[in-house]
Write a structure and sequence with these properties.
There is one protein chain. With 516 residues, the chain is an alpha+beta fold. 39% of the residues lie in helices and 16% in strands. The protein is built from 16 helices and 17 strands. The strands form 4 sheets. It has an 8-stranded mixed barrel with strand order 3-4-5-14-12-11-6-15. Strand 3 and strand 4 form a beta hairpin.
């Protein structure tokens, strides 16, 4: 139709006629065209026929040229694979052609995951407990936490005023380091009771099936030998993390059931995601291939720039219930380094309780008393308003990115990095905490969106005349659109090809959701 309209319009503009041109256009639409036919079809008027014989072939050629150019451009645009939807389509084809393996967990026990490095750390902890008379001298130092080791840990925790949960994590490890040469990264490891210290034949069989399934789903390229070596452990952890399969650091029924999810069910979830993202793309402006997507369903943030994935990171999102993070959209226009945190009224009561028992926070938190901001420090917590100074204990971390969403929620760092060791990370009051807020800043610089002469690591250390860390706001060269969405499947690319994430429905929506 575009071709017909163009030919008619060009003819009318050249001849300045009405009925004759409409007649010509009708004939052109009904008859296959060639340049030698065109002159005799225009009109019975000899002068018009002569003019048409000289000009209309040129018009026709111009129209064909323009249409060919438009069609070629359209084909080129169609052929360029979209960085989000094309992988989903490929993954659908993969599962249509291949049936997901089925594994049974019946008769099996949970198997705790321990890399060689972690076993060494646990053995060190056992020796420290023995040296300090919390664990019997004759106890084996083998890097496996049995019931006796956990009992010794709880005794140590009780004597040091800690919660007696038997977990050697971010509160217990620093105290153990004070009485020993222990050097363990408490942000990434939480040692607790081991379900099995020695593997039996059934365990090895199950591990072999899991290795095969991880290879099938393209999460790994493992040697299928039934051995729980470091490569297999890391692949299992990665699968559990990307699919939000509980916070248990073990091989368990939840892992096996998810790995065994049928191809048809995976296809259904992928098609839902594809339809959702295509719907979102149709409603966006044409230039928004430069977009940050915060997918709450995966607790992941991704930044696509010029149709390429440039940045991806784990995030923490809002707790279930009234604190859940909302689906929304906006644009980042600036980055704020060394932010203050004004405590929201909605969490005053909770924050007061925390401040009363946490002296370190009182040393960096101010309260409003009689119209004046006063550092709490050793004073009683009794203010009518609270704000926390910039620094390493600030809940926003060292940088935040306000995208002016309707709910006022932010992308920012965190002071509680240890929470990222968990697969399911629902801990905030609605904001989205980045695992490393510096990385997004550097990505903006690399892409020319932020001034690349800035040294953000130096900026966070700058102080003002009052001795406080200096708050600095840096404008982006161009706004970066942000969409906070809830899409229950995604496809990423890894070392072993495309792989699908299909996390559990953490907010219980029952479907994918985006801002309408």
């Amino acid at each position: 139709m575009a071709r017909k309209a163009l030919i008619g319009l060009l003819a009318a503009s050249f001849f300045g006629c009405e009925d004759g041109c409409r007649e010509a256009q009708k004939k052109l639409e009904e008859t296959p065209l060639s340049s030698d036919q065109i002159p005799t079809m225009v009109s019975d008027n000899s002068q018009t026929q002569i003019a048409a014989s000289n000009i209309l072939p040129q018009i026709y050629g111009l129209g064909i040229s323009l249409m060919a150019k438009q069609e070629a451009q359209a084909v080129e645009e169609q052929e360029e694979p979209n960085a989000i939807t094309s992988p989903i389509e490929q993954m659908i084809s993969y599962y249509e052609a291949n049936e997901s393996p089925s594994i049974s967990f019946r008769r099996h026990r949970k198997i705790t995951l321990n890399t060689e490095y972690e076993r060494q750390g646990k053995a060190e902890i056992q020796q420290i407990l023995i040296d300090n008379e919390y664990l019997d001298t004759g106890h084996a130092v083998e890097g496996c936490f049995d019931a006796d080791t956990i009992k010794a840990v709880k005794k140590f925790q009780k004597e040091n005023g800690l919660s007696q949960d038997g977990v050697v994590g971010y509160t217990t490890i620093p105290l153990l380091e004070e009485i020993s040469d222990l050097d363990v990264d408490e942000n990434h490891y939480a040692f607790s009771l081991d379900s099995a210290c020695e593997l039996n034949e059934d365990d090895h069989e199950l591990i072999s099936e899991i290795e095969s399934a991880l290879n099938f789903h393209h999460y790994a390229g493992l040697t299928v030998d039934g051995e729980l070596d470091d490569a297999t452990i890391e692949a299992i952890r990665y699968y559990k993390r990307r699919n939000l399969i509980n916070n248990s650091d073990s091989i368990d029924s939840a892992l096996v059931e998810h790995l065994s999810t049928s191809s048809s069910r995976r296809i259904d979830r992928l098609k839902e995601a594809l339809a959702t993202m295509n719907s979102l793309r149709r409603r966006r402006q044409p230039d928004t291939e430069n977009h940050i997507y915060v997918n709450l369903a995966e607790t992941q943030v991704r930044f696509y720039y010029n149709n390429n994935l440039e940045f991806q990171m784990d995030i923490i999102i809002g707790q279930k219930g009234k604190w859940k993070t909302d689906i929304q959209s906006g644009s980042i226009r600036q980055a704020t380094v060394n932010p203050w945190w004004n405590v929201p009224v909605s969490i005053y009561s909770e924050q007061k309780r925390i401040l009363r028992r946490d002296r370190a926070l009182r040393q960096v938190t101010e309260q409003l008393n009689n119209g004046r901001w006063v550092l709490i420090n050793d004073n009683s917590v009794s203010g009518s308003d609270f704000r926390q100074r910039p620094g390493p204990l600030n809940p926003f971390g060292r940088i935040y990115y306000d995208f002016n969403g309707p709910e006022g929620e932010l992308l920012h760092g965190t002071a509680k990095h240890y929470l990222f060791r968990n697969n399911v990370r629902l801990y905030s009051h609605g904001c989205m905490r980045l695992h490393n807020e510096y990385d997004l800043f550097h990505t903006f610089q690399r892409l020319g969106i932020l001034d690349d002469t800035l040294n953000v690591e130096e900026m966070v250390q700058e102080t003002g005349s009052d001795g406080l860390f200096l708050t600095q706001r840096t404008q982006l060269v161009e706004p970066v659109p942000v969409n906070v969405i809830y899409v229950r499947a995604w496809v990423d690319s890894g070392e072993n090809g495309l792989f699908m994430t299909m996390p559990k429905d953490i907010y219980g929506y029952g479907e994918s959701k985006v801002r309408r």
